[in-house]
Amino acid sequence: MPLWVVDALAALSLIFIGYVLTDHACNPLNMAENNVQPTGKSSEYSRVALNERILSSLSRRSVAAHPWHDLEIGKLSSSYGLCRSMFLILSDVYAGPGAPSIFNCVVEIGKGSKVKYELDKTSGLIKVDRVLYSSVVYPHNYGFIPRTICEDSDPMDVLILMQEPVLPGTYLRARAIGLMPMIDQGEKDDKIIAVCADDPEFRHYKDIQDLPPHRLAEIRRFFEDYKKNENKSVAVEDFLPAEAATDAIKHSMDLYASYIVESLRQ
């Protein structure tokens, strides 16, 4: 047998063995069976029970990168590179000088769309959730911040103000300028209000008070109305400044680190 064939087979064997060992050792479901308890710093916010959907999205991947778990939110953390298969190393994305001041976010719904797209946690693909029942469209691009988790077991939601609509599944750099506290059917569902850091028309905004009052009224009215024809109640509270948004992002990053990263470290 030619020497190059032997070398190739040996390399493939090493990759396969590394993948199997990594996948088994880092499977959060295995950690759960061993009663591993997540740890993290205390917070004034309530603790969130880890949803099984999140665990399954981490445990069933083998090739494609997952936009929630494999896209860096910003600066590289000490946990970078933990418990990923060799194949994922090639497909991860790194960008941004550091969260939460400037952070990556994944767009699920483009500005002007009436279709509600959302992340499928298992596959990492963007799926159609529904077409909005009301005669409204999303006023700006809408998506989530990777490597965050909130009280509803989903990543942190973000509305990104910019000039143009963006295709679902695209990621971009954004800056938080405010927080929109929202209660959706009795559950907390806050939204980060952000601007695209690379849009010359919006990137100079630093705080939500800098926005024209009419634009804020449009955003509020959209979220108050977009579920009315589904007989679902949504309550939008007063907008909060950029500092509150930054604190909320930090909190969601801490929760993610506690429930996901720390569980994989055990």
TrEMBL record:
Catalytic activity, reaction form: diphosphate + H2O = 2 phosphate + H(+)
Family annotation (InterPro entries): Pyrophosphatase, Pyrophosphatase_sf
Coiled-coil portions: none
Cofactor: Mg(2+)
GO term, biological process aspect, one: phosphate-containing compound metabolic process
Swiss-Prot/TrEMBL keywords: Hydrolase, Magnesium, Metal-binding, Signal
Signal peptide: 1-22
Gene Ontology molecular functions: inorganic diphosphate phosphatase activity; magnesium ion binding
PROSITE patterns hit by this protein: PPASE
Highest taxon above the source species: Eukaryota
One cellular-component annotation, GO: cytoplasm
Family: Belongs to the PPase family.
PANTHER family referenced in this protein's UniProt entry, alphabetically: INORGANIC PYROPHOSPHATASE (PTHR10286)
Protein name: inorganic diphosphatase
Lineage of producing organism: Eukaryota, Viridiplantae, Streptophyta, Embryophyta, Tracheophyta
